[in-house]
Amino acid sequence: MDPALLREREAFKKKALATPSIEKKKRDDSQFKDESKKKSKSSSSVSTQPKLDATNYKTMTGSSSYRFGVLARIVRHMRARHQDGDDHPLTLDEVLDETNQLDVGNKVKQWLQTEALQSNPKIECTQDGKYIFKPVYKIKDKKSLLRLLKQHDLKGLGGILLEDVQESLPHCERALKHLAQEILYITRPTDKKKILFYNDKTATLDVDEEFVKLWRATAVDAMDDAKIEEYLEKQGIKSMQDHGPRKPIVPKRKKTTQKRRQFKKPRDNEHLADVLETYEDNTLTQKGVSIK
């Protein structure tokens, strides 16, 4: 080889060793390959799932809220039918047809037929597999309503909620209008709900107006029973001492006194208690008489 080229080669090596250089490491592409594979798998799984659109969202059976929405719509429709006077039972297909829900899935239909409608307290299933609304009270007209109120009054069961009557009685407003003189309406102060009572006219009393004015003028809303009783005692009135719920008296247990045990004497030879026996002169003495 030409010696000039060898000298240039050696000079180049020395220069290369003298200048610092940064080495670039090769990238590990295995990690990026794994991540790309995971992304491709997730995208493929998403693509395989059914898409939600306007044509098949009712047939999808995954959400429980959709199922209970269908059930609530059925119950509302059956209640409205009953309040309008339609009391004939319907099949499940007829109910879905009247509620415009014929496009529900088969799983939802099976759930309605086997679980939801069977256990719903507002739906009654007949023997032939049809469904009808189940009201709180079985009343059909104003006579049955008046009879129910009389039974509650005689048995002391109290009143009936107006909303239960409206739910149970078809054409309720018309019947309540006819029975306006036979029914008393009381508003419950806790929840402002109206309660119906039978207006028993045999129990009406003529009360003096002065007494009514005094009764209405006396305000005892902020006083409890203890304060009222204390006020009456100060006024010398003791008529309320025997009224109100009585506290049950717990009977006191008697202390059992332990008796000392008396040791009984032996009863052998009691018939010889009065006989004295002496062995010196072989004599027996009984009641002052001695016998040899």
Give a structural overview.
The chain is mainly α and 292 residues long. Helices cover 42% and strands 10% of the residues. It is built from 10 helices and 8 strands. It has helices spanning 3-18, 29-48, 64-83, 92-98, 106-119, 142-155, 162-168, 172-178, 209-217, 225-234; strands spanning 123-125, 131-133, 160-161, 183-187, 194-198, 275-278, 283-286, 289-291. A 3-stranded antiparallel sheet has the order 3-5-4. The longest helix is centred in the first third of the chain and has 20 residues, at 29-48. It is extended, with a radius of gyration of 50 Å. The termini are far apart. Mean pLDDT is 76; it is low at 45-62. Residues 249-264 have a biased composition (Basic residues). Recruits TFIIH to the initiation complex and stimulates the RNA polymerase II C-terminal domain kinase and DNA-dependent ATPase activities of TFIIH. Both TFIIH and TFIIE are required for promoter clearance by RNA polymerase. This is Transcription initiation factor IIE subunit beta. Keywords: DNA-binding, Nucleus, Transcription, Transcription regulation. GO terms for molecular function: DNA binding; TFIIH-class transcription factor complex binding.
